[in-house]
Queue: 4 jobs
Job 1
Amino acid sequence: MTQRSDLMEPELTSQFEADDPAGLTSGRRAVSGGDSGSAGEEMELLHLGKDRVLEFTVRGPENGPVVLFHHGMPGSAVPMDSVLDSVTGKGYRVVTCSRPGYGASTAAPGRTVADTAETCRVLMDHLGVHEYWVAGWSAGGPYALATAVADSARVSGVLLIASFAPYDAQGLDFVEGMGVQNRVLFGSAAREERERRAIVTQMAAIVRDSDPAELAAGMASLLPKVDAAELTGAYGVDNAAHMNHGLAAGDDGWLEDLRALTAPWGFEPGDITVPVELWHGALDQMVPVAHGQWLTRQLPTVHAHIEGGHGHISLGVGRLGHKLDRLRSRAA
């Protein structure tokens, strides 16, 4: 693997009715969805067969380059204006989906990171997308990498924002530098199912229906000042709607994400062949910068940016469009 010399240098709708899964990929169509959106916009449902559905939204210019955005943990397909306006404002068309167990997406117990990427491949095929970019923030990062492996013929590049590394990554202390909540959460991965579920349920109760100020206070160990400021601003309102929708039907999505992230992902980072732009905040207390450093050593096509003045949230709010442009310019 190539080690990058710049590793530590900061660089300052409708519901579909088809029940036959074969029908989902038998005919491609143009990407649909509104040209703008908000936390209250209508979700769409893709029927996967066997009583399974995947919830998704599409927003942005009709003919813009398509980006599949993988949300964090917990999360949902509800698009956050404070995050995605910087993307659609630069002309991109953004697809978001609720991973299985979140929002209206049917739970898939035992799913791996690679399994979910395969489901997203089916979604993009259904939408008639011939070429697209993938972005993943936080827990969405591994799913973005997995999508580049599952759909290598169509994915042009990957944008990683504060992504987790594998739980069993050699030479990485996974929880070192994390705030107490994430230490507890990921520490539960080695416990019995009942204990893991109890911890996720307790954390979901804190997150669910909390106003941004209450959430910031409850997450203090995870938030450097730059992140606390974002959480009590416009992003905090967007994030509350985003997470509340994801957790409205229960905690299964969060529990399944925890399982998937701490189990084998179903692929190796070295399998990635498309350009990767990796961004990580040096102040990150949710996913410490050591995760980004580890991924930089393992991803053969990566260009890493470690930003000294940013944390987990401030790194991405209002700034993803610029980062996607950087990725596209490299690929070109």
Job 2
Amino acid sequence: MYKKYSFSKYIFICLFSTTLAVTSNSLQVEAKSRPKEKILQGENYEKLINQGQLRTYYIYTPKSYNPKHAMSLVLVFHGDSGSGNSIAKVSRFNNLADQKGFIAVYPNGLDHQWSFTGHLRKKVDDISFVAALIEHIERIRNINSRKIYATGFSQGGILTQALACKLPNKIAAFASVAGSLTARFVPSCHPSVSVSIMMINGTKDLSVHYDGDRISQKEALVSIPETVNFWRRHDQCAFSSQFQKLTGTKSSNRLRVKAFRYSGCRNNSEVLQLAIVNGGHFWPGGTSSDTKLNQLNIQLGFNASRAIWSFFQRHSLSSLRTIAKPNF
């Protein structure tokens, strides 16, 4: 009885082992024939549906991206009549993304414009779109939700200011270039948390006036000093200091950068203003098809994109750390 049981058990074990071996080999063949998941690095053009509209964006994933490790996300918004691709070229955030290790996303506005209260014809609110876009990006990339940032130029800078009012719980820090708050938006801007924001503006900007617009104008913009003071009051900043970085002596335009930093703010938030003295409507340190503007940028010797990333790195949604000294 014992021998029969042992022999039967032996036969069962052999058959079971053979089955496992065949199954294992089959799985190995299947695994070899199944293509590995492709990690999308470099430039990619993507789309999503939001508020009944097809929305598109340009995303840059650096070579250092690893799906197992969360990365910071920088949203970059183009100006009026621009595109995600155009602001990517001007700002050169892709190069910085490779050097510093973050994902850059450049959304496209409908009809190359941004709407803060609803598109006149298509009834689309771009603030809601940005919130949906962030959730979408978090599904397709491993994003550090504490380190999502927003910056933009001109109308994209105005959108960035609006996002500071409406999405400070999703975005850790903001930086507007040649942008400001709209007078119509100010009464409804009551963020429930402190806001870390950086502003870069030319004092001779003929599109986004440093001294603001007449209130009677449609979509009038608040002056740059008033906008800075708005955020200082909101963040309850206690201290201010001024630094000044001068351009080289060869500068015929007498361009220079004046920096005003407001610290001692609630929850370690920070307000930083960079005034490009005698500067116009441009992205400092960016590229352009205008050779004169490129020469002006060389004379200025200041890179807005690098300064913005340096500012972003000092802030995260749950960070209570001491603010580091700015590095220009």
Job 3
Amino acid sequence: MSLHPEAAAFLDRLEEQRMPPLDQVGVPTARELMNGLRQAQGPAEPVEAITETCVPGPAGLLPVRVYRPARRPGPRPLLVFFHGGGWIAGDVELVDKPLRSLANASGAVVASVEYRRAPETRFPGPTEDAHAAVGALAARAEEFGADAGRLVVAGESAGGNLAAAACLMAKDRGGPQIDLQILICPVLAPAENSPFDSYRQYASGYLNTRTAMLHFWDLYLPSPGKAAHPYASPLLATDHKGLPPALILTAECDPLRDEAEEYGRRLQADGVPAAVRRHDGALHVFFLLPGLTAARHARDHIAHTLRGHFGTPRPPRPRAR
């Protein structure tokens, strides 16, 4: 399919603004450019309450912003979310408007985590932050009006990578027990020598590029060999058995599309329920633009998935050992 008209119009606006490629500027400029996406996100939806807090990480406190939507009947899931930005950029402000919309659409309490970023902190630092934050927030779920027995881990782009890694770490380390993972355009495999067609088909011209991904990986990893570690590249894990059920949302016009969809197939092959939804004609950053049709559809799909997953009482899933 061709680009959705909304996606094409967005690329046209970026071209008019002469936005430079993220791999051709320094990290401070890349962070400024990434935060510039906030100007295209539209107005912020009101939510019932927002709490600014911190949780302990392996190297200090991690800032967290918690969104509580208007209360609905029944217990509310706690959805721990990790922002994207190539591991080098992004923060809670970048995803503030998308997560307000997600909380309202889903009824879940959404906790947005700021992890340490590369290149100041390279792998495995951000993954350790993610795992620590999930455990700390689960322990405080009741404080936020959520049910610790309905724990969801989610993330977008590099944040989807951290969400998937946190699930692997929870399985390997015996907790916390995560009930569902939601991965939005996640990074799950190395960019170097990628075997996936989407890396060739959408190598350039669609905002997120092959060259940019190579650059982000280079800034994230302490050495190239670390790309093979399953916490860096969850697709390369030899065993996905026992991981939480997954919802994986992909964008058609994204180099990362095929690796994310392959991850869904690997999960299914290892007996993990996994649903994969491709958003035709969409760009990698679609979730960050709440007004786009693709973003609205994604929020609706996440809300439907949460209702289906938690709508009826279920026996507890055995804890990983």
Job 4
Amino acid sequence: MGQAAGQKGREANMETVGVIGLGVMGAPMAANLVKAGYDVIGYCRSPGPVERLAAAGGRAATSVADVTARADAVLTVLPDSPDVEEVVLGADGVLRHARDGLLLIDFSTVRPETSAAVAEAARKAGVRPLDAPVSGGERGAIDGTLSIMAGGREEDFAAARPLFEAVGRTVVHVGGDGAGQTVKAANQMIVGGVIALVSEALVLLEASGVPADSALTVLKGGLAGNQVMNVKGESMLARSFEPGFRIDLHHKDLGIALSVARSKGVATPLTGVVAQLLTAARARGLGSLDHSALLLLVEELAGRAPVREGHA
């Protein structure tokens, strides 16, 4: 994948790509774009990630305006809807400084209505917008194997495909403006529910005196097998919860999912329960841990172990 993506970058004559947001996901995505042969300019509020990108072959920017003025495509990887609104729609934001025809790809997970509003404003400014949230966590961002669900116009998706293929493995155009965010909401509903069920299963196994590591091995090979067990199983057994995707962010994402469901008149009772579990986990000081740390809350509810604040 890296070699093919690198060829695409060279074919684009070192197309200049700006990346705004160099956090857990944005930093490795920017690094993969550098490896693919793109001229990458990065910016975030903290200087450390920008310096690391520059050391890896990218270039440092001093502001959103600095990134946008030099870029042919701008990628945003930000925490929430207000961040995207500020960076893109703000008085000194992307649209204020964008070149005509700029490709704007938002990899953030935000409300579908936010993406729709950004798309409308972008087209008025002569910018080509796509909402393209991702799934795969930090590991997928590092390995360049993310799943990308893109909303927007088909011709803009086609133009962005080489960039998508530099950071992801499964790349699908799922519909119009905001459609990517709706698919991401569905993704987060499923992931949250599976984490909760895997947590309950581990607590049940351990309470029954069954070796959980052996049980996971056989469960992975049957119909119950899933990516949560594949990617998170060992760290859950070790009670190691270094954040690849924080409980705080998954809590935010399920809020989006529930809001979309309510607006469409769709009952989502299981998602509501998982959202409440995440709320309880945050109240116990677990919000900064990986979302698989929901296991600690399930243990507490089962009377098996106290929640240890800050445990990682």
